[in-house]
Design goal:
Number of strands: 15
CATH architecture: 4-Layer Sandwich
Helix content: 25-40%
Order of helices and strands: HEEEHEHHEHEEHEHEEEEEEE
Shape: globular
Number of helices: 7
Strand content: 25-35%
Radius of gyration: 21 Å
CATH class: Alpha Beta
Strand order of the largest sheet: 6-7-8-9-11-10-12
Structural class: alpha/beta
Distance between the termini: 49 Å
Length: about 325
């Protein structure tokens, strides 16, 4: 009888140890890369910078890559557009081969051809397709996915030009239970260089922005402008509750200068610049428990990238989860 009790105690300790180890493994830090705008007049894609980006993703063993549009140059016929998109996909093949997820949304250059939806779906299909949970008419270009404790949403802004599908997005946010929320699209919500971004429709842009905040998100990643710009979008003077806009249009498109003025239609918000760089590079996002760190990795030489800006915050668990504040 005593021997049986002893064995039971040993079994319980072993079981608890296994559960503890499993829980620890599930909570290990992980990371992903964000970049955009790799278009080039030479065959549609800047394969040099994109090749380096692919190598960085594999070297850093990231879980996935988010790409915020303008993969290719466009302004071509159907066959040429298929070829450009295929070249982009082939350049990223080492990332696919490493088992790293690749999630892209369209930019304005990616739709600059006849039958714009056909080319995208010709190339990003089967094992290369995006999650198939987008709204009607936006399958494979608008979508969401869950990864570990993160909820990621890619929004297409060209099925309805300069707009997102807000009804679908609200439903996605309402169903989410993950503490980390990341949203990415092609166009900045607040104008930096290009005119004609989401602020063409400021009232709808404000609803979009407020929905990210309500869902617990603190970041919107985008591209369109060919530089890196990190700005805080302030609505109440408190820097601790603002959403950050990260423009990462730095994957090979011609780099641009900028006046430094956030002079678009900003509505009730004040746009405060945090960091700006007109160099190639990418954002490396690290998740460690509830802590998020975004690092701007700038290209300082061929194939060499160094950290130039770091920003971090701590997320909260969604309301309603036991023992957690929302």
């Amino acid at each position: 009888m005593r021997q049986r009790s002893t064995l039971m105690v040993v079994f319980i300790y072993v079981f608890l140890a296994i559960v503890s180890l499993a829980g620890s493994a599930a909570e290990l830090p992980w990371q992903f890369i964000v970049a955009g705008d790799s278009r080039s007049k030479d065959d549609g894609v800047n394969t040099v910078i994109m090749g380096e980006l692919a190598a960085e993703a594999v070297k850093k063993q990231v879980d996935f890559v988010l790409f915020s549009g303008d993969l290719v140059q466009g302004h071509v016929d159907q066959e040429a557009m298929d070829g450009q998109l295929e070249k982009w996909r082939d350049t990223m093949q080492p990332v696919y081969d490493a088992g790293i997820g690749v999630y892209a949304v369209r930019g304005n250059h990616d739709i600059d051809c006849p039958q714009k939806d056909t080319s995208w779906n010709n190339i990003f299909k089967d094992k290369y397709s995006m999650p198939d949970n987008g709204p009607a008419g936006e399958k494979n270009v608008t979508y969401s996915f869950r990864h570990k404790k993160a909820f990621v949403v890619g929004v297409d802004e060209y099925a309805q030009v300069n707009r997102v599908n807000q009804g679908w997005l609200d439903a996605q946010f309402a169903a989410n239970t993950q503490p980390h929320v990341f949203v990415f699209g092609h166009e900045p919500a607040f104008e930096v260089g290009h005119e004609g971004c989401l602020d063409v429709n400021p009232a709808e842009r404000d609803i979009f922005w407020a929905s990210i905040k309500k869902a617990g998100g603190r970041i919107y990643f985008c591209g369109h402008d060919h530089f890196y710009d990190h700005a805080r979008i302030d609505d109440d003077g408190d820097p601790n509750n603002d959403i950050q806009q990260f423009i990462v249009g730095t994957s090979g498109a011609p780099l641009r200068n900028w006046s430094g003025d956030y002079d678009g239609e900003n509505g009730p918000y004040t746009v405060k610049g945090i960091y700006h760089s007109s160099e190639y590079g990418y954002c490396l996002v690290k998740i460690d428990g509830l802590d998020i760190t975004v690092t701007w990795m700038e290209r300082v030489d061929a194939g060499k990238y160094e950290a130039k800006e770091v920003w971090s915050y701590t997320a909260t668990m969604p309301c309603g989860e036991t023992g957690k504040a929302g």
